[in-house]
Design goal:
Elements (H helix, E strand, L loop, with lengths): L1 H24 L2 E2 L5 E2 H16 L3 H4 L1 H8 L14 H12 L2 H14 L3 H25 L2 E2 L5 E2 L2 H9 L5 H38 L5 H16 L2 H30 L4 H13 L7 H17 L5 H6 L7 H8 L1 H21 L1 H4 L7 H9 L5 H32 L4 H15 L6 H12 L1 H10 L1 H16 L6 H11 L6
Antiparallel strand pairs: 1-2, 3-4
Helix pairs in contact: 1-21, 2-7, 2-22, 4-15, 5-11, 5-16, 5-19, 6-13, 6-16, 6-18, 7-8, 7-12, 7-13, 7-15, 7-16, 8-9, 8-22, 9-19, 9-20, 9-21, 9-22, 10-19, 10-20, 11-16, 11-19, 16-18, 19-20
Pfam families: Na_Ala_symp
Organism: Almyronema epifaneia S1
Keywords: Cell membrane, Membrane, Symport, Transmembrane, Transmembrane helix, Transport
């Protein structure tokens, strides 16, 4: 009875806050069936930045691959992690349950056509990531010991102050950090550990929640306390592994049904423009696709900007170009692999309300791989753990901005305890609250990105001119040139 009273007390505290935040973030623009405000806020920004930056998502794609391969890495540049480690850390924070469950929800509510709009929103979102991550490196702080402090809170203050907007910048930065702390502790930590336990307990019946919680919290603590260098080192190994496991399973389903792939793609495209009445017409399909894309890749939320601010580089535009790969990997590639598997197997047509989220994806794969629930459970655990460690760094940076970097150990301890508690409790409204805070981060972040977008466009023009004119050699070319310039010791 006492526990029920405690739960009821928590509900009474959080319910009004959740209701108000939901009303603001999901207020339908254009009528009852219009776009939720936060979805429109993110999508319009993505279109604006894509046009303003001259479609850098397409013309900069090849260069982004070259940078990630390390061709421009200089170990003497300021920063704590390589371009690839920064990308892996950020991707590990976005690739997760949204790619498995979120895609199924989009198809269930919006039909196969939702995937067309999800993909389109992902392509536009690439440039939003470019803008916010470019600004994060440009306005980061590098301490004497080499530690990097960066993210939206720094470009909101350091970027807006010279424009006479210091009070606005400070207010937006504090708001962003408060929202980031809530999002990191709840949806990005407790919810992930909760789902990881649910996945592993299906494989190991009778596994005590407290035991799994202790193991998961200990693993998280080992990585988190080591800081961004250890987080990046783990992410660069974990992300390719978890992506490979899931991708191989997806490809197996696609290969088995290879003859039906053209028809599945045709269904996705045709129903994007001529959907069934059951999904609310074309606006309903667009809303579901764009909404799931925004939730999946987090373009505009500002979280990835914190990870990329630690990249070892003296070219902020270069790191922004690396960052535009994230929505492509997360949304255009992984989400579409899930979607094609679901559409190919047709499980979305005959399940009704009996299957949703992870269950629908599992059902789709089980049609050709009987043991897929095992693979899915492993993937869910890996995705959850990668999100936990990545978002710990985001929370640490927000805490450091508000309370000072010397106190971050306090937050790390709180974070690890929350990882443990997430396995034990039904989170309910706390998760709803933290998810809303996570989405709310996009409001202060994008205001700053709009104001500073002219700076980014100018810096991009200068960088691209130097790159295409041959003034920007790779690190190997630079070393070869410096070696050839050294005087010979021979007589």
């Amino acid at each position: 009875m006492a526990q029920e009273d405690a739960v009821t007390g928590v509900d009474r505290i959080f319910q009004p806050i959740v209701d108000v935040m939901s009303l603001f973030l999901f207020f339908p623009i254009g009528g009852e069936n219009g776009f939720p405000f936060i979805v429109l806020w993110l999508f319009v920004a993505a279109i604006f930045f894509t046009l303003r930056m001259g479609f850098i998502n397409f013309r900069g794609f090849k260069h982004a691959i070259q940078v990630v391969q390390g061709k421009f890495d200089d170990p003497h540049d300021e920063g704590e992690v390589s371009h690839f480690q920064a990308l892996a850390t950020a991707v590990s924070g976005t690739v997760g349950l949204g790619n498995i469950a979120g895609v199924a929800v989009a198809i269930q509510l919006g039909g196969p056509g939702a995937m067309f709009w999800l993909t389109l929103a992902g392509l536009f979102g690439m440039v939003t990531k470019f803008v916010e991550c470019t600004l994060a490196v440009k306005y980061r702080r590098v301490l004497e010991d080499g530690t990097v402090l960066g993210g939206p809170m720094y470009y909101l203050t350091r970027g807006l102050s010279p424009k006479g907007m210091r009070p606005l910048g400070q207010g937006l930065a504090v708001l962003f950090c408060i929202l980031c702390l809530g999002g990191s502790l709840g949806g990005a930590n407790m919810f992930q550990s909760n789902q990881a336990y649910a996945a592993i307990s299906s494989l190991i019946p009778g596994l005590p929640a407290w035991l799994f919680g202790v193991i998961l919290a200990a693993l998280a603590a080992f990585v988190i306390i080591g800081g961004i260098r250890r987080i990046g080192a783990v992410a660069e190994k974990l992300v390719p592994a978890m992506a490979a496991i899931y991708a191989i399973a997806c490809l197996f389903v696609i290969v088995v049904n290879i003859a039906q792939v053209p028809a599945a793609i045709g269904t996705i495209i045709s129903e994007a423009f001529v959907p069934s009445a059951a999904v609310g017409g074309i606006v309903g399909v667009m809303v579901q696709g764009i909404r799931r894309s925004s939730f999946s890749n987090e373009a505009g939320v500002g979280s990835a900007a914190i990870a990329h601010s630690a990249a070892r580089t003296d070219e902020h535009i270069r790191e922004g170009i690396v960052a535009l790969l994230e929505p492509f990997i997360d949304t255009v590639v992984i989400c579409n692999m899930t979607a094609i598997a679901i559409v190919l197997t047709g499980v979305y047509q005959d399940t009704g309300d009996t299957l949703s989220g992870v269950a629908m994806t599992s059902s789709a794969f089980a049609t050709v791989i009987g043991w897929f629930p095992i693979v899915l459970s492993i993937a869910v655990c890996l995705f959850a753990f990668s999100t936990i460690i990545s978002w710990s760094y985001y929370g640490i940076q927000a805490w450091a901005y508000l309370f000072g970097e010397r106190t971050t150990l306090i937050f790390k301890c709180i974070y690890v305890v929350c990882t443990f508690l997430g396995c034990l409790t039904s989170l309910g409204l706390i998760i709803d609250f933290s998810d809303l805070m996570l989405l709310g981060m996009a409001f202060p972040n994008l205001i700053g990105c709009y104001i500073l977008s002219n700076e980014v466009a100018g810096d991009l023009k200068d960088y691209w001119q130097r790159l295409t004119s041959g003034q920007m050699p790779t690190y190997e070319q630079q070393l070869a040139f410096e070696t050839s310039e050294q005087p010979s010791n021979k007589l």
